[in-house]
């Protein structure tokens, strides 16, 4: 211990989470500006159901990021793991309601694979850079219990990727799309 060098203190969890979220938001804005159809994005966010779902998804991602940074500290309360659960439930409920209304309006077309594989690829693909950058920041804290930190980081990356997908999604979510979204989120959280 006498030979140990000084250690640079980590910034507070909210500051680190905020800085990471700003970087993720900048990347999302660049992606939307370069590859998005702004008229389509405007049409998507003009629907109240889509807005509720999008707010629930993004809030889940933000709360999961904050939870991951708090859980990474030895003295961080384990209750942070519960923080994104209410908005995650709202996300699931609003997506499920959207699926229900789509089936009522469109009949059995909601049971076709359609673009579900593309949704799965998008969420997993967009989660990779988000998750890797988050991993690099979270590992600096050397968490005592890395599993909850990794689970929250995975949920954050997957939720934010799913939120970005909502802006590119060409139609209301179907039951098969919802299943593909859940599979993609589960894969990201699992990894």
What structural class do you assign from the helix and strand content?
mainly alpha
Share of helix, binned: over 70%
Count of runs of 4 or more consecutive helical residues: 7
What share of residues are in beta strands? Answer: under 5%
Radius of gyration: 18 Å
> Which residues form runs of ≥5 with pLDDT under 50?
none
Overview of this protein structure:
The chain is mainly α and 191 residues long. The chain has helices at residues 13-35, 38-45, 48-71, 85-106, 116-138, 146-168, 175-190. The two termini are 36 Å apart. The mean pLDDT is 84.
Offer a few descriptive terms:
191 residues; elongated
Describe the structure concisely.
This protein has 191 residues and is mainly α.
Which helices and strands occur, and which strands form pairs?
Elements: H1 13-35, H2 38-45, H3 48-71, H4 85-106, H5 116-138, H6 146-168, H7 175-190
